Automatic annotation (TrEMBL):
This is L-serine dehydratase. Its cofactor is [4Fe-4S] cluster. It comes from Treponema pedis str. T A4. It catalyses: L-serine = pyruvate + NH4(+). The lineage of its organism: Bacteria, Pseudomonadati, Spirochaetota, Spirochaetia, Spirochaetales. GO terms for biological process: gluconeogenesis. It comes from the Bacteria. NCBIfam families: sda_beta.
């Protein structure tokens, strides 16, 4: 437990779960997209679906997708700002099986055409967990530096990737791997110790054969 867990997040809005957590889900979606979003479809489940207008969950997620953090005073005007910035965002309610009550499923399209789907839950006190990226199971909290690597599911790729982090003297605190099928495309999430990680580790991983993409997310 850290001080954040005790006193809660620095935030704009009435609810740490429905506002601060929702901003962080949107923000991590933006970081994973790695380019400005021009379209977003947000499907809200459970408590998110029932109270999103009153608690500002829609504004919070929109703000995060535009790159705002939970303490940004522009969150309350994010839906207006989205229109001004050319972000076409729509919200719908949905029933998801085996999902936390505060869950959002987000489909986004970037300015350069990249498409991404993300499922994330706000689990209390502004804390979140991203559980799915493009249909693959992951586990990202946003509390520590995280590398998300997409690669071909062939022998030796995991060792090649982790050897790069070792060379950079980075300690891995948690690793999670999801794949669509054996020999297909896999997604690895590496959560690392420290307050930040230099971007050169990502650049070195991208040089590995059969690595398609690598995204470095600093703590939020």
């Amino acid at each position: 437990m850290d001080i954040f867990d005790i006193i809660g997040p620095v935030m704009i809005g009435p609810s740490s779960s429905h506002t601060a957590g929702a901003v962080r889900i949107g923000y991590l979606t933006r970081m994973l997209l790695a380019e400005p979003a021009v379209e977003a479809r947000v499907y809200l489940h459970g408590s998110f679906a029932h109270t999103y207008k009153g608690h500002g969950t829609d504004r919070a997620i929109a703000a995060g997708i535009m790159g705002m953090k939970p303490d940004n005073e522009r969150i309350r005007n994010s839906l207006t700002l989205a229109k001004e910035q050319g972000l076409n965002i729509k919200f719908e309610t949905i029933e998801l099986s085996n999902a936390h009550p505060n869950t959002a499923f987000i489909e986004v399209k970037g300015i350069d055409g990249k498409k991404l789907s993300v499922k994330g839950s706000s689990i209390g006190g502004g804390n979140i967990i991203i559980t799915e990226i493009n249909g693959k199971q992951v586990e990202i909290t946003g509390k520590s530096p995280t590398l998300v690597v997409e690669y071909s599911d062939i022998p030796g790729r995991i060792a090649a990737i982790t050897s790069i982090t070792a060379r950079h003297r980075i300690n891995i605190s948690q690793i999670h791997i999801g794949r669509d099928y054996r020999g297909g495309t896999a997604t690895m999430c590496l959560q690392m110790d420290g307050l930040s990680v230099d971007s050169t580790v990502k650049e070195d991983i991208l040089k590995i054969d059969n690595v398609y993409d690598a995204i470095l997310i600093q703590p939020v």
